[in-house]
Each structure stands twice: as C-alpha cells, then as structure tokens.
C-alpha cells in the first residue's frame, strides 16, 4: 500500500509507532493522536481505549483515505472473545464485551473490508472502501 502519512491512537512508549515509522519512505510522516493534525492518512494504528474503539472508527473513516488501512489492536483480547463468560476473569469482562461488540460492528460495516490476524493479541485490518 506504500503508506506515507500515518497516525497512531494510543502511542504510549512509541514502540508500535516506531515499527510503523520504520516501514515508511524517507519523506514519510508519522504522528500520534496528540501530535498530528494532518487531514488525511494512509494508515492508522489504534491501541488505546477499547471501550471507544467504535468512536475512533467513525473518526478515522473520515481521516483515512479511501483504500487506506485502519488497524485495531487487541481484537482477540487474550482469546476471551471466543471463550464462555464463566471462563474469563471478572476484571476482563467489560473489555471482552466491548471488543466483541466492536468485532460484530466491523464485520457488518459495508464501508470496510476486514482481515483479522491472529498475531499477538489479534489485530484487525480494515481497508476503507468508500
Ligand atoms: C496499550 S497502550 C499503547 C501501547 C503502544 N502501542 C506502545 O507500543 O507502547 C494504550 C495507550 O492508550 C492511551 N489511551 C487510553 N485512552 C485513550 C484515549 N481515550 N485517547 C487516546 N489515548 C488513550 C493510554 O494512555 C496508553 O498510552
């Protein structure tokens, strides 16, 4: 996809931000949610507040160009999205519900083509179609 302009929501240590930056061309630009005011991006990586992933999604579909990618981290949520309710610890339950709901929303969103990859804690790539 040859990304040039990217943004990350939830940069924290900058580890994943740096990984993205290393994949950019020399004139590429990368920013975090707090630093970047560019109007259009080729790629966005979201690793922040899971309870509002749906809000990030709506905003990023306006900011990422058609054909661009939005990647969401933690969409398998330690595998709890596929487990029975009694199998998960109490402190994970709210996030499990949030992620399950978000995954359902993405799977029926006609504006994106999605691919969920089972690396790490699960990453879902969404390509904006229109
Ligand atoms: C799991 S960490 C991200 C780790 C990061 N990808 C890295 O490589 O270090 C989540 C980050 O999201 C931030 N965060 C939480 N809620 C947020 C929000 N509503 N808006 C923006 N960032 C948020 C947290 O402060 C934290 O820095």
TrEMBL record:
Keyword NADP among UniProt keywords: no
Q: Name one GO molecular function term.
A: S-adenosylmethionine-dependent methyltransferase activity
InterPro entries xref list? Cation-dep_OMT (IPR050362), SAM-dependent_MTases_sf (IPR029063), SAM_O-MeTrfase (IPR002935)
Which keywords does UniProt give here? Answer: Metal-binding, Methyltransferase, S-adenosyl-L-methionine, Transferase
Pfam families per record? Methyltransf_3
Where does the source fall among the domains of life? Eukaryota
- GO biological process terms, semicolon-separated: methylation
Q: What is this protein's function per UniProt?
A: Methylates caffeoyl-CoA to feruloyl-CoA and 5-hydroxyferuloyl-CoA to sinapoyl-CoA. Plays a role in the synthesis of feruloylated polysaccharides. Involved in the reinforcement of the plant cell wall. Also involved in the responding to wounding or pathogen challenge by the increased formation of cell wall-bound ferulic acid polymers.
Protein family membership: Belongs to the class I-like SAM-binding methyltransferase superfamily. Cation-dependent O-methyltransferase family.
The entry's protein name is Caffeoyl-CoA O-methyltransferase
Q: What organism does this protein naturally occur in?
A: Populus trichocarpa (Western balsam poplar)
């Amino acid at each position: 996809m040859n990304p040039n302009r990217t943004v990350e929501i939830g940069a924290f240590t900058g580890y994943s931000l740096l990984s993205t930056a290393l994949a950019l061309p020399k004139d590429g630009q990368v920013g975090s949610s707090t630093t970047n005011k560019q109007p259009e991006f080729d790629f966005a990586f979201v690793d922040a507040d899971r309870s509002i992933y749906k809000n990030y999604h709506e905003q990023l579909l306006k900011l990422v160009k058609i054909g661009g990618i939005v990647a969401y981290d933690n969409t398998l949520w330690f595998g709890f999205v596929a487990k029975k309710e009694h199998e998960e610890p109490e402190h994970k339950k709210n996030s499990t519900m949030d992620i399950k709901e978000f995954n359902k929303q993405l799977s029926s969103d006609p504006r994106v083509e999605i691919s969920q990859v089972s690396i790490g804690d699960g990453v879902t790539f969404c390509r904006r179609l229109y």
